[in-house]
Specification:
The protein is of the alpha+beta class. It has a single domain, classed as Roll (Thiol Ester Dehydrase, Chain A). It is about 20% helix and about 30% strand. It is built from 4 helices and 7 strands. It has helices at about 25-35, 40, 45, 60-75; strands at about 15, 20, 80-90, 100-110, 120-130, 135-145, 165. Strands 1, 2, 3, 4, 5, 6 and 7 form a 7-stranded antiparallel beta sheet that branches. The longest helix is centred in the middle third of the chain and has 16 residues, at about 60-75. The mean pLDDT is about 90.
Length: about 170
């Protein structure tokens, strides 16, 4: 992959999918001990007595895991900054041993009414487990640089391209 993708390059309907990632108990609990120390996130023995019946990941861990997987696929977009996350839903618990991937679909784009250097893009994101269950889903709205403003840095973080064909186009 070479070069940045600017607002003009993002196509409504464009879909991306990350690599698969295996969730480990150690990673989940280390995160929870630091950032969300509820017993059903940090202690497998106590979690067995919880309404979930077992250890589950913190919702914040789900967000952080989604962020790293999505960035591997969309890190070449010339982001300026995020504006909002809307419609956030933790739809299913994430458990040790789950294998997840992140998906994104470009829902809309429009010029900014305030910024001359960026347009606005809204994406729908999901973190999906090996059973096809959506773990977390939400829509993000962000400013993305216009091509005329130039590159934000020398080169984007390299990652394999996983842009999927737009539904209904066959391409």
């Amino acid at each position: 992959m070479t070069g940045w993708r600017f607002w003009e390059d993002i196509m409504v309907g464009e879909r991306t999918r990350s690599r698969d990632h295996a969730v480990t108990e150690a990673d989940m609990t280390e995160f929870a001990v630091r950032y969300d120390p509820q017993y059903f996130h940090t202690d497998a023995t106590l979690a067995a007595q919880s309404p979930f019946g077992e250890l589950i990941a913190s919702g914040l861990y789900n967000c952080a895991l989604w962020r790293v997987l999505d960035h591997e696929e969309n890190g070449d977009i010339a982001w300026v900054c995020g504006i909002a996350w809307d419609n956030v839903r933790w739809a299913a618990p994430l458990r040790p041993g789950d294998i997840v991937h992140a998906t994104s679909v470009a829902l809309s784009k429009r010029p900014s009414g305030k910024r001359t250097d960026a347009g606005i893009v809204t994406l729908h994101h999901q973190l999906v487990n090996q059973r096809g269950e959506v773990v977390i889903r939400f829509d993000s709205t962000s400013f993305v640089r216009l091509r005329a403003t130039g590159s934000p840095a020398p080169d984007p973080i390299p990652s394999p391209s996983r842009i999927l064909p737009t539904e209904g186009t066959g391409s």
